[in-house]
Amino acid sequence: MNSTQIPPDEDEEDMLLAMQLIGLRIVPYAIKTAIELDLLEIIAKAGPLGTHLSPLDLASKVAARNPDAPMMIDRLLRLLSAYSVCTCKLVNDKEGKEFRIYGLGKAGRKLIKDEDRFSLASTLRFTNPKFEGDMCSQLTASILEGGARAYERVYGDLIFKDMEKNENIRAEFNEAMLNHTSIVMKKILKTYNGFNSLSGGVLVDVGGGLGANLALILSRLPKLKGVNFDLPHVVSEAPKIKGVEHVGGDMFDAIPRGQAIFMKVKPNYFTINTFKALR
């Protein structure tokens, strides 16, 4: 029997990709909502990996008063299952009616707290969709007109200036960087042995925030000394870490000396001035 389905041509695949890209703006909002409702943590705590819960179960656990909450949670998680945040199974109730149940997907497991209580969810809380949406709305003007950057056009100042003045922004940023840095550095230390050659020397972390990188590195190499270098208002809130000296300053003025320099900063810093600062 001949199939009635015609294989998609290249133009159709291109169109589907374009449509998917347009729809991607919804995904961060959906993830943010799932995190705010604690849906992923609820699924994780319900049992071992592979445990699934129904939207009705989830709605009851978030204490939703909205009678349509199970249906809305179902639609939310059905979308996220397409991006491996959730897994989805079809099951039947006692009357044979089909419904969906949801578990944690591969990406979703990175959005719940790990054994050290770190999670990438805090990064989304800081770089939330509205925050980035407001900035992105100014990208066209920034390109055409120049001058102020997108963030500055929306909020009136550069983000790092805002963090000096706004305790809430600063706290959210520090929390996001602490979680992201700790998760990434734990992965790096499992496969990278380059820090071993520095044992007994001094490692300078430029833009080190609260010192999470150095804390993890020095926990493996206690003979190593660390200098955590960041803006004064950042290091003023950094906790005491054995073997680490917190130094405030500006990387474009001067950087403390050490046996090696480590940098984990946003790519927008990598201008010609960045490389001048490292000379």
TrEMBL record:
Protein name: Uncharacterized protein
Ranges of residues in domain O-methyltransferase dimerisation: 19-113
SUPFAM superfamilies per the UniProt record, alphabetical: S-adenosyl-L-methionine-dependent methyltransferases, Winged helix' DNA-binding domain
Transcription recorded as keyword: no
Molecular function via GO: O-methyltransferase activity; protein dimerization activity
Keywords: Methyltransferase, S-adenosyl-L-methionine, Transferase
Record-linked PANTHER family: O-METHYLTRANSFERASE
Protein's GO biological process: methylation
Superkingdom of origin organism: Eukaryota
